[in-house]
Amino acid sequence: MLGPQVDRNLLQKVIGLARALRYHSHNMGALRGQVKKVMHPDTFYFTILRHPVEVAASAFSYYKSTASAFRNISLLDSFIQNRLRFFRPGAKRNNYARNLMWFDLGLDPQKNHTQTAEIFSSLDDTFGIVLLAEYFDESMVLLRHALCWSLDDVVTFKLNSRSNATIKAIYQETAVRLRQWNSLDWALYSHFNTSFWDRAVHFVLARLDAEVQELRARRNVLATLCLQGSAVEGKIINDKRFKPFQPVAVEILAYKLKPGLSNEEFTRCSRLILPELQYKDRIYAPQFPRKIRPPIN
To answer: What is the mean pLDDT of residues 201-219?
Structure first.
């Protein structure tokens, strides 16, 4: 969600703030009534969704030591086959284990499952656009036009991604069970997948594809300017400014900047690779003096 004074260079972190997890001090769920109390009346709200099977697999890896339902289980297949044995509604951090996107949007999985039509209508009214992670570049093109931004305003590098070594293939049977287990997320994703492509068709698909190619070309230019090759395992990053948080059960990738960048280039490039926790600190710095910290709810 963006107010009139938001720095455009914070785009990739604003997306995280828009759909992130309420249990972290640097993120929040979409408690829309409370948010609107402090935001400008003409604030443009947007969020991003991801295929529920991929969300479930990522959450299992990332929150392995956090969600009580995932502890002492080595494989996602084992969890989903015995989910009722491991999952207890209301148990500590178990919001990560089922219908996570539904929870992130401020919805109660225990109360809202019979009111999806009304909920989707309300969400349609709230969000100016709902993006799709699987079509991130297409999402950035549509978002920049919705906000009248330039191409450079939406150029990003992929952050917070898992290394290939920690990503396991998902069996078809497991995928089916995950969709069933996360049925609210599946309904949510299906609804906004339709609205996303309706918007893309209205934009004109050929035009969308052309602008996606332009966006990717610009990203390649900046990658050549900024980066020492592709993303690497975060554990080998020595500079704490660019070292991402490493969960217990997964390796998060990061980038190394090229040496010899000018001050202007370093500022621009470092913003593109800054991990979420460090970016949170950067956002907080002017808002909360060192002696005053925001409450953690």
So the answer is: 98
**Continuous segment of H or E residues that includes residue 81:** helix 76-81
Cα–Cα distances (Å) from 232 to 11, 145, 235, 254, in that order, read 23, 33, 9, 5
In a domain, 294, yes or no: no
Distance between CA atoms of 175 and 43, rounded to whole angstroms? 37
Q: Is residue 295 part of a domain?
A: no
| Token duo for residue 276 | 């979420």
Q: Is residue 135 in some structural domain?
A: yes
pLDDT for 236-282, tens place per residue?
999 999 999 988 778 999 999 999 999 999 999 999 999 989 988 88
Range of the domain at 142: 8-286
Residue 291 confidence (pLDDT): 60
- Helix (H) or strand (E) run with residue 111 in it: none
DSSP 160-179: SPBPGGGPPP--HHHHHHHH
CB 271 within 8 A of CB 255: no
